[in-house]
């Protein structure tokens, strides 16, 4: 559990090692490999150990334990395409580490939502915690809700947009919602939309996001080209 008390202990103790335990560890070092469940031991600004079994020495070494069960633990600078530029969890490397929750945070809505919450749980830079429980570690924990973007603003793109084959018919309504018919399915997709310049963002009632662009009198969206009717 990411309590403010545990964060205070971590930040105020420069002697005891910190152990990230029980997470799925992605080392980004082919020689080491990865583990479904393992530990990462941090001493000061560097990684001093990685792999399963480190928890067994926790009491002997006075480790500060951060439970990472149900999380991915990987370098905060990770590039799967260019392995030469990525960070690793190799012992001796800087302790720049990200802990990513797999499950949604508690209280996340099931349906579509603006700023529904991130999965970055803990972030360490040179062994210091900079993000804790998904929030900047320097900020006091607060409960806030992001305000949704402005919707329902009149603009020149309102109305019915139809693709080249008359298969998809998307209507942009003045209340900031859209209604999309496909073939013989009326209202196949419905949701909210926002327009910023020539870009349109969609949040469907099913929960997914999509986007489109207005170019040369056409709406380009999801491989379709729409014209006004």
From TrEMBL:
A GO molecular-function descriptor: hydrolase activity, acting on carbon-nitrogen (but not peptide) bonds
> Which InterPro entries does the record match to this protein?
Atu4866-like_sf, Metal-dep_hydrolase_composite, Uncharacterised_Atu4866
Pfam families associated with the record: Atu4866
Protein name, UniProt field: Protein Atu4866
Query: Species name for this entry?
Result: Nonomuraea wenchangensis
């Amino acid at each position: 559990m990411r309590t403010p008390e545990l964060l205070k202990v971590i930040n105020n103790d420069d002697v005891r090692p910190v152990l990230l335990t029980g997470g799925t560890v992605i080392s980004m070092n082919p020689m080491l490999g990865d583990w479904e469940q393992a530990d990462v031991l941090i001493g000061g600004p560097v990684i001093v150990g990685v792999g399963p079994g480190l928890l067994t020495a926790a009491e002997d070494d006075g480790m500060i334990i951060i439970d990472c069960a149900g999380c991915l633990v990987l370098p905060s600078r990770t590039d799967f395409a260019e392995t030469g530029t990525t960070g690793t969890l190799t012992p001796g490397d800087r302790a720049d580490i990200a802990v990513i929750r797999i499950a949604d945070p508690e209280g996340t809505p099931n349906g579509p939502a603006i700023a529904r919450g991130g999965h970055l749980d803990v972030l360490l830079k040179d062994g210091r915690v900079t993000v804790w429980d998904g929030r900047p570690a320097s900020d006091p924990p607060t409960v806030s809700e992001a305000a949704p973007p402005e919707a329902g603003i009149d603009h020149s793109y309102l109305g019915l947009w139809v693709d080249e084959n008359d298969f998809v018919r998307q209507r942009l309504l003045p209340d900031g919602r859209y209604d999309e018919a496909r073939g013989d399915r009326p209202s196949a997709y419905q949701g909210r939309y926002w327009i910023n310049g020539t870009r349109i963002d969609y949040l469907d009632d099913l929960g997914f996001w999509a986007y489109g662009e207005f170019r040369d009198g056409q709406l380009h969206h999801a491989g379709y080209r729409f014209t006004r009717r």
